[in-house]
User: Which sequence fits this backbone?
């Protein structure tokens, strides 16, 4: 049984694609003779982030990080995020010449540039340095891989995403009591998610937002006709998602967008911009509409077959995702084992 340590700055109570991906991964790898131990912000002091209201940043020390790693006795180490925890785990590994992998899960340069006068090129240079020490930097889509390769990132490997088709399924739909069609968006309510582009559209029926975040109060004021339902999880999230007619994914900066697969598993088509994430998930498959005119995409998505959406999602399993992830780490585990034997 391979014991994998995954270091992440993103964890409960955050509700986002990174956290959902890591939790789904942890459940699935057990099928393939592996377990995951998480090194998370739990137990560390933290501070609020001025540029990300509502989020807190862990403040670990190098000694505390070393203790947690050594207590876990991992066969392989994966760094999921580039925050304080990820940085100190990277430092630990580099100092001891331990191989590790990383993943590029969030476009922080674009997020930072949306809030502060910091050029994206500077942030990408910092991330390029961060990931350069990894044996493999895992990315979720071919278009993201091409983009990062063009920015000078090396040793890139594919790690796709999956969906829990038992949790997310059409039969969970509940009556929302809203005029149809229902256009739904799910995710963090923050400027980088571009929700205003959706909420400002002239659409029939109802607009529904699931999620919380720093832009929520502003958007509630600007768009009083939209229904804001707050954060929903698990069965409640699946039930509301299955009740929608279209999932609207207005983000231009997400690296994947797991929520798209969750909606498709519920039989709900996707409307989005033709950018990284939607371009890879939807592509030319008849399960959604990509258009630079988001209103056009929303209206055309109403004609997409819900049965086709469900059938497509059934081919996107977490098993395939977990196998890819483990394959990148088995070589590291084997090399560490040889090193211990040699010592």
Assistant:
């Amino acid at each position: 049984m391979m014991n994998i340590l995954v270091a992440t700055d993103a964890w409960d109570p955050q509700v986002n694609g990174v956290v959902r991906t890591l939790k789904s991964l942890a459940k699935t790898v057990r099928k393939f003779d592996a377990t995951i131990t998480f090194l998370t912000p739990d137990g560390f002091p933290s501070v609020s982030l001025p540029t990300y209201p509502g989020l807190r940043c862990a403040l670990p020390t190098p000694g505390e990080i070393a203790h947690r790693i050594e207590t876990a006795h991992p066969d392989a180490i994966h760094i999921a995020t580039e925050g304080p925890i990820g940085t100190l785990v990277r430092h630990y590994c580099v100092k001891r010449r331990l191989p590790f992998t990383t993943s590029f899960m969030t476009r922080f340069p674009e997020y930072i540039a949306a809030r502060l006068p910091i050029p994206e090129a500077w942030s990408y240079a910092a991330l390029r340095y961060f990931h350069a020490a990894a044996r493999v930097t895992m990315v979720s889509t071919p278009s993201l891989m091409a983009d990062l390769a063009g920015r000078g990132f090396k040793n890139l490997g594919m790690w796709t995403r999956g969906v829990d088709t038992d949790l997310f399924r059409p039969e969970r739909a509940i009556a929302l009591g809203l005029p149809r069609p229902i256009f739904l968006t799910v995710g963090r309510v923050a400027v980088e998610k571009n929700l205003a582009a959706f909420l400002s559209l002239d659409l029939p029926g109802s607009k529904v937002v699931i999620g919380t975040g720093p832009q929520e109060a502003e958007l509630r004021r600007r768009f009083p006709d939209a229904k804001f339902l707050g954060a929903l999880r698990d069965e409640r999230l699946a039930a509301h998602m299955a009740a929608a007619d279209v999932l609207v994914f207005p983000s231009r900066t997400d690296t994947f967008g797991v929520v798209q697969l969750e909606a498709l598993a519920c039989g709900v088509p996707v409307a989005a911009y033709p950018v990284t994430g939607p371009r890879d998930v939807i592509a030319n498959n008849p399960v959604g509409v990509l258009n630079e005119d988001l209103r056009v995409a929303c209206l055309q998505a109403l004609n997409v077959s819900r049965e086709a959406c469900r059938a497509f999602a059934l081919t996107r399993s977490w098993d395939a995702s977990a196998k890819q992830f483990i394959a990148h780490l088995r070589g590291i585990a084997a090399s560490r084992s040889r090193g211990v034997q040699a010592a």
Q: What stands out?
A: The chain has a mean pLDDT of 93. DSSP finds 14 helices and 14 strands in the chain. The radius of gyration is 20 Å. Residues 199 and 223 are 7 Å apart (CA to CA).
